Amino acid sequence: MQTKVHSIKILSIMLFALITISLFQFPANAASQGIVLDKNDISLGVGNSYQLKWTVIPSDDDQSATFYSKNTSIANVSAGGLIIATGKGLTEIVIKSGDGLNFTTCKVKVTENKDTEVINLAETELYLRKGSSSSIFYNYNKDEYVFSKSSNFSSSDEEIATVDENGTIKAIENGSTTITATFGKIICFCKVNVGEGTKYISGRKVSGTLLNASNKLYKNTTIAISYTKNNKIYYATVKTDSYGKFTFKGIKDGTYNFAYYDASNRKVIHSNNIKVSGKDIKYTAILNKGTMLAVQGEIKSEENTTPKTVSLSNEYLSMNIGDIKELNIITTPRDADITKLKVTSSDKSVVDINDKGELVAIKSGYADITYKTLDGKSTAVCKVNVLETESTEYSLIYIALIFLVILIIFFCFLKTYKKFMIQKKLREDMYD
C-alpha cells in the first residue's frame, strides 16, 4: 500500500512539473519577436512597383502582417505588401506583425521616370452613400488621346461595394473596401467608404447650359455634381456634339482642376486648371460626337472652408505601439476643411502624423499633437501617451495565476487523497 501511494505521488508531481514547463515554454511561441525585411530601403521610378518580402521572427510564428504608407501620394502599398510608386518624393512603408506586437519600416525613394508608363487614379479615396454609384477615372502620361491598354477592376469586399468591367463602383453596404484597378502591369488602388451620409453631402444638382459649335442652346440639361464635406466634385456627365461649350452655374469662386474623359472607352481627353472669377464656369472641349463627358475637380475657394477656430473632443489619449488613430476635430464653421489646419507633433519619433491626418504610435513616450488655424488665433492640443505593449507582462501574470491555481489544486488533491487513504486504512484495521 505504501508503495502504491508513493507511486501515485510521484506521478502527480511529474504531471504537475510537465504542465508547469509547458506553460513557461508557451510564451516563447505566442508572441512575435521582430520583423525582417528583404530590403529596408527601396528606390523606384514613378509607376514602378516592388513586392516586399518579410519574415516574422521566430520563423515558425504567424507570418501575417499589415501594411500602410505614410504618404500615398508618393507610394502606395497593397494588403499583400506590393509597393507602388505614385509620385516623386520620400516616404516610409510601415509593416506591423499580425499579432500587433512588432513593427518595422521600409524607406521608399521615388524619382521621375519619363520612360515609364504612368497611370494615376484621379481619386485614391471615395466617400459614397449606400445605394449610389461612381466611376473610376485615371490619367495616362503617354498619350492623352490614345489609350489601348486592357483594364481590369476588382473589389476586396463585394458586400461593401462592387465594381464592373468599366470601372463603375456601386455602393452596397456601410463599410470600407479597396478597389484594385489593373492596367497591364500597372496596379492602382482606390479606397471606397460607404455610409449613410454623415461624411457625404449628396443630392446637390447644378443646372447648366450646353452649347455646341453652332451655339445651339440645349435648355433643360442637368449636370449632376456630387460633393464631399471638403467640397470635392466627383463627377458630372452631359452629352455633346463635336465641339462643346459648357457653362456651370451656381459653383463658388475658386480654382478648379477639371479633367475631361470619354466614358465610352475610358480615354483621357483633356485636363486643365480653370480660375473662376464669376458665378459661372465656361470651358470648351473637343469630343467625339455623342460621347459622354465626365467632369471632376476640386474647389479651392477660401469662402467658408478655412477653419476659424479648432478644438478636440479628446485632450488626452493613450495608444499602444503600432496603433493608428484619428482624432475628432471640431471646427467653426462645422463644415470647414480640416486639411487647412497646421498639425505638428512635438516628437515625431513617438507619434507621427500620416498623410490622412491619422496619429501613428511609433515608440513608447509622450508627445503633444497641436492643431492650429492658419491665422494662428486658435489652437488645440492633444497629449498622447504611447505605452509599451503589455501582452508579455500580462502573459507572465496569467502564467503566475495559472501556476497558483494548479498548485492549490495539487495540494487539495494530495490532502483529499491522504484523507481518503487514512480512512481506508482505518476501515481495513477495523475489519482486521
Comma- or semicolon-separated keywords:
single chain; 432 residues; alpha+beta; Immunoglobulin-like; 3 domains; five-stranded antiparallel beta sheet; 2 helices; elongated
Explain what the structure shows.
Mean pLDDT is 68; it is low at 23-30, 143-148, 197-251, 256-304 and 390-394. The radius of gyration is 31 Å and the shape is elongated. Helix 1 packs antiparallel against helix 2. The strands form twelve sheets. Strands 20, 21, 22, 26 and 29 form a five-stranded antiparallel sheet that branches. A hairpin with a 4-residue loop joins strand 15 (161-163) and strand 16 (168-171). It has 432 residues and is α+β, with helices and mostly antiparallel strands. The protein has three domains: 32-109, Immunoglobulin-like; 117-299, Sandwich (Immunoglobulin-like), CATH 2.60.40; 307-385, Immunoglobulin-like (Sandwich).
